[in-house]
């Protein structure tokens, strides 16, 4: 057999070079195919993410897709709040039991905090080898390789995407590029979701404000304030909403309406403004954000310490009135943002309009009532009194021609007619008086006292009050106070000692003196009257060089006479 000599290396050179080039070409083709596959996956992901506007769904989907495309065992996303703290942390790859055993979400320290402080990609073969790593909490699975990229749109950073434990051993530069592309898509998706949520939020508030404005204009219902409080609580997702009104002296705040947590404890309570948060808001005219409403306890504004974030919004009422709209959420819930404050201020202006309109309607009804009373009083004076007066004159003429016994009977009836005329005149004056407005005239003060005594003790007879002479002209403010005190004490004695069926109060101004006479047909004060009250009446009379007497009445009972010179 012929013998073949072995091939020389120089003869194999082109073959080896060709095989090397072919291997490189196959590797490059494989890389291109993988890149194309990842590119197709990324395009699919873009369509999925940008078409979904539910923010919570978008965030979780981003992490799930990141772990799938980059072949990671675990994935997470940290959402950054405005103060650069970790607002939300979403994990993929760990079961619910493990997450529960780990406990609270990360606070943004260590390696995670480094990405927040410097939003640049971080790729590590071993997490433990990095000086910024602070280890893992108890029950946390151990992790080796790490890839973190920021989620941003232009200059706005929304958070970071974290991937750990590459199934290929460690993350490659291609993995980092793909993660950055995914993070860019995620940033757009988050921005779109937030813009959409913001649009829905403002649309909801705008619709509510328009509805409220329409209701304020068209509806004459007095319950607008309750409707507004309920509406703002619902829209702001608050746990407590209250309306506080400043008193006329501008020293205290009274809680006029409150719904939600602690409502029963707060309703109707009052607080001194002083250095309170509400006082600060009213003085500055600017809303105040309170990080922890529990701190308001020190300002005597509210009591439920379980409340967390709160905002206090001032508003004006009419020419000089003021109030505050307060909203609070329970501890642990999300804080109020700038948009909540803007919308709260809009609702506070509607509350101001509602209160103004309610007061205007009340004033309108009061004027209508007084006009109706004036008409009744005019009819009583022009018709009833004139007819009674004419009847009395006719009876007096008849009595002059009768025998003495009969004439006496007729004369007594004339006196009754005169007394009826006096009572009708008193009623006419009362009709002209507005019971909702405090009056300083002596007549009004006495009638208010009579009304109060009757309301406090319905079993006692209503005193018959008669005014003789220009009592309002002759009594100045101090004397009016003294007369009011005399009438109050005298009627209190009648009620206290009881059994009276008739009580008469006569206030007269004549011959330079103002006199108060209170007569009843009861059992009298007895032998042990309450000396302190009577001594007070005597002291008031002595201060004017006047007189005070308490004696049995001409027909039983008691007669009190208090008289002072003017």
Give the secondary structure arrangement, pairings included.
Blueprint: H1 9-50, H2 55-69, E1 72-80, E2 86-92, H3 96-102, H4 110-117, E3 122-124, E4 146-153, E5 156-166, H5 173-218, H6 224-236, E6 240-246, E7 252-260, H7 263-266, E8 270-272, H8 277-284, E9 288-290, E10 307-317, E11 321-330, H9 338-399, H10 404-432, H11 442-456, E12 464-468, H12 471-474, H13 477-497, E13 503-510, E14 513-520, H14 531-543, E15 547-552, E16 558-565
Parallel strand pairs: 12-13
Antiparallel strand pairs: 1-2, 1-5, 3-4, 4-5, 6-7, 6-11, 7-8, 9-10, 10-11, 13-14, 14-16, 15-16
Helix pairs in contact: 1-2, 1-5, 2-5, 5-6, 5-9, 6-9, 9-10, 11-13, 13-14
Whole-angstrom Rg: 45 Å
Mean pLDDT: 77
Helix content: 40-55%
Q: How do the strands line up in the largest sheet?
A: 8-7-6-11-10-9
State the separation between the terminal residues, measured CA to CA: 164 Å
**Any idea what the CATH architecture of the largest domain is?**
2-Layer Sandwich
